[in-house]
Hints:
single chain; alpha+beta; eight-stranded parallel beta barrel; ten-stranded antiparallel β-sheet
Amino acid sequence: MSIQWNEKNREFHLRNSFLSYIISLLPDGSVGLAHFGPPLSPDRSYPRLLRTESRAWSFRGDGQPDDFGLDFARREYPTPFRGDFRVPALTASDVRGAPLALDLRYAGHLVRPGKPALRELPATYVEDAAEAETLTVYLRSADCALEVDLHYTIFRDLPILARRATIRNAGSARVFLDRALSASVDFDDPDWDLVQFSGAWARERHVRRRRLGPGLQSVSSVRGHSGHEHNPAVALARPGTSEESGEVYGFALVYSGNFVAGAELSSHGETRVSIGINPENFRWSLDPGAGFETPETALSYSRSGFSALSDAYHRLFSKRLARGPWRDRERPVLLNNWEGTYFDFNEERLLGMARSAKDLGVELFVLDDGWFGERNDDTSSLGDWDSNPQKLPEGISGLARKIEAMGLKFGLWIEPEMVNPRSRLFAAHPDWAIGPMNGARTLCRNQYVLDLSRGEVVDHLYSVLSRLLRSAPVSYVKWDMNRSITEPVSSALSPERQGEFFHRYILGLYELYGRLTADFPEVLFESCSGGGGRFDPGLLAFAPQAWTSDDSDAIERLGIQWGSSFFYPASSMGAHVSASPNHQVGRAVPLGTRASVAFFGAFGYELDPDALSGADRAAIKEQISFFKEWRTVFQFGSFLRLRGPEDGDGNEVSWMSVSGDQSRAVVLFARVLARPNPPFGRLRLRGLDPERTYRVSARPSVPVPGEASARLNDGSRGGDELMSVGLLLGGDGWAGIPRGDFASWIFTLEAVT
Length: 753
Ligand code: DGJ
């Protein structure tokens, strides 16, 4: 890893063994991107990589050199109004509302070891300064007081380049930032697919891939949270790129609020990728001397397909974004009472469930919504975080102690950002809810959102929640957020600062999360927003796992977890076995398949264990003990996608996880619908050591009659054979796989040589 400055050619070369990122000074003194891609020799310079021929009607100001125009230059942090008509990274205006034609030029730089932390925002980090190097490029303007610093960190052991900007007002008059993105990256050709992870509540983060066409294509959120609809992480891939081959770039924003991520294909075939805070409803007032920091974006490059790109993000997010003792720990097998009881429980019922759960091998009992105030449905009490004595006579602390006495850990659901009008908190502080005090405020799920842009609201929540966590042995917190933000007005902000509201809300959220996670490092936090409505890199810095989706149906989860795995590691995905028929889609899936899919995540159950049949209890006991044996591989192995919902007719989904030393692996193969008399097939595995021999054992989703066929794939096989020939996929009841829909198979592989 190195960052070199070539004074003569006015060029920075950031390089590690995976990628090169070459920044050149353009003829007008601004900074441009000469190359982002495979590593290039550090001994040469690359002046020719900057495309400079002009095109007719591409804007070039009189007097500018023939071979340079802002309209087609590859610019690192583009500003508008001077001849670049593509999407800008930064726009600003003065107090009269007049746009500023910012002419930002290179004015110096600094290279330092390590990676400095951000002031107010979460970011990736290093534990040792030797793990990364950081370049800061100073941009200054002769006719404007705005100063911009561009920060680039290159990691030594990862194909990752982290980018962000800080902006300062060095003048004597107020300036408004109307757009301040985290990064803009210009590519000089049009042949790309934009890969996004989109959906809706209960079907989050499905892979959507489309060929770039002329103009702007983007995904975004204006909901105040990153949202179920689109994820703030996208990829730009060559049209032929597959899991194992081809070029692909990743862009992941470490942020949990309104975002935009997209690509613009210009008339002359250049592609500009932009990512950052959504400029919609954003206007930041910078007083003289004040500064603004953008969120960080983590860029990556792979020339060997999507799997390598995902591996880079899995390593980054699980080891250098997540933090705290839980980062490296196996996650406890939990039982969450939500789908088992909803709001209908009392202490006796919970203790009964906990006792049964303990008997099954569960390690953590989680009490979900409905334990506080007078909450028996979703119409009241958010904001009043005292336990309901009718349901819990000895409070949370009494219940938690009884559960701990059974040998289980205790976890608790909260939704701190919300308030019901029917609550003591709202009666005392109606102005703490977001929205105009005397105007209409839209209720959703009977609740308002608390104004976390206000320091006193954050302080209040901190004191209530820290008291709660001190009062009882709580080992896990599920932090929910069940509505989007409307009427984005803060009664505490002056009129000219209302455009700051959405970002200030997220800063308040991060402050609250930061204080609580710092004070309670032993508590495992799981983020949630109606399932996966805030499953983003920003929150992973505080909560190492998130509730992936409210949809716990194993067949739906195949697509959800498949898509999520492009950026997010298995350890970050809450995955539970729920009752059948499933509560979200009404589908009846074999218990074995429900577990097979959930194994690849922060595993648990979400059902009433007292309602289980004897056979299901026995099966679950066996599932949990199997999971514990393989938990490290499921949660922390290298995750590889083998066959996905978008392959063929999408009827078969398969993925696997391999331990770091390649001595153990687990493989999921799921078949959605049974097909009569299917063709022959093989499942080629990946990531194994070709020199080693592995013992293969199969676990069908339901017991299979016919021992001989059930053992068809069992036995010792070379890693080379498993990867180049593969496992046998048979016909009806193949290899003993159960007949019927929604069947699955887990294969375990252990190296014997
Ligand atoms: C939405 C969450 O995603 C569910 O798991 C559950 O916690 C409910 N909220 C409770 O209100």
